[in-house]
Amino acid sequence: MTSASTSGPLFRIGAVSKTTAIPVSTLRIWQTRYGAFSPFKTEGNQRLFGEPDVSKALLLKQLIGAGHAIGAIAHLDLEQLRRLSSQDVRTPSATALALPVCLAVVGLGLANRLESIKFASVLSQHRIQVTDVLEDLASVSHAPLSGKPQVLLVRVSSLQDSVFSAIQTLTQRHAFAQTIVLYNFAPDVVVQSMKRVGMIVRRDPISDGELAELLQSILFVDRSRAEEFGGQGAVIASRKYSDQTLRRVAGISTNVLCECPRHVAELIAQLASFEEYSQECLNKNAEDSHLHSYLRSISGSARSLFENALEKIALHEGIDLRESEVSRFQQ
Questions:
Q1: Which of 73, 180, 198, 248 is the most buried (most CB within 10 A)?
Q2: pLDDT tens digits, residue range 174-209?
């Protein structure tokens, strides 16, 4: 049973109904008959619901639609409901291509937004599954992740060096394929540093459509081909090699080695450059966001696949692709 907290935003039952597309009468039954929620009561005896209640309502609706009985799951907390939801999408009957893209989200309000029916209708081409939700970055350091999310999505008000460091630590610990950070205020030097290490950084507020395009831009256009070539599921991995490393590989071709290392390294650098350019266009031009999302996905998919090809070439030719810590920050 969840309880609304006065520390976060509070909503009337009508607002919860509108956000979740669950009738007010149904929400009242879930609360009074099954004890799913414990709303905060004002001095005037008005019931107000918190963001955790909105999260629970969305999960209950999803699980009931999958065949679970409200009486059997109403008492579960958010973590238990998310674990049950994750188990449902990983059943043996689900094919590899039907599996959703799994996200870890920092920010309860952002998680509620992603799980809403309205957002699902915008992101129609791909299924996403929020497997882990953390209230803030401070709680991340001691909270284990229940699933194996491919994408980290963070919402913060202000980006500072300390926030950047905390996000970097989190991405290194859990090996996310992609990290997306939404922020309100930040020094440009911090934003540029985050972009150089492969994070996607976007100033908030952005619309549901823009957020959906941002998520689509990190997904492989052709999942089956991506998995055939060793891609990480449906998500395009961040860059593996800096420009400095690619230049080093391109310059070591000799009469003994074929020209494949040089050509592939140059292709990766060109694709990475176009991928970054498309991302910048996606950030600046909302009218053409769908086109730039597609172009970034195409270039990112190709770049990731050529990186896998470069690894095979390096193994065959005995080329060391390991990067120094300096080169990682000199892209």
A1: 180
A2: 878 888 999 989 898 998 888 877 788 888 888 888
Contact predicate 272/303, CB 8 Å: yes
Q: Which helix (H) or strand (E) holds 30?
A: helix 24-32
Q: How many helices (H) and strands (E) does the chain have?
A: 15, 10
Nearest to 155 by CA among 119, 118, 103: 103
Distance CA 236, CA 213 (A): 14
CA proximity to 152, closest of 203, 94, 101: 101
Element (H, E) at 179: strand 178-185
Phi, psi of 174, rounded to the nearest 5 degrees = -110, 0
- Report how far residue 110's alpha carbon sits from residue 115's, in angstroms, rounded to the nearest whole number: 9
Closest CA to 282 of 211, 230, 234, 228: 211
Where in the chain are the domains? 1-92, 95-219, 239-328
pLDDT tens, position by position, 283-305? 666 567 778 888 888 888 888 88
**From CA 271, how far away is CA 155, in angstroms rounded?**
28
Which candidate, 289, 267, 269, places its Cα nearest to that of 278?
A: 289
- The pTM is what? 0.65
What dotted CATH number matches 1-92?
1.10.1660.10
Q: What are phi and psi of 151, to 5 degrees?
A: -125, 135
Token duo for residue 18: 């509108």
**Which region, left, alpha or beta, applies to residue 238 given φ > 0 means left and ψ of -120 to 50 means alpha?**
beta
Q: Residues 4, 50: contact at Cβ < 8 Å?
A: yes
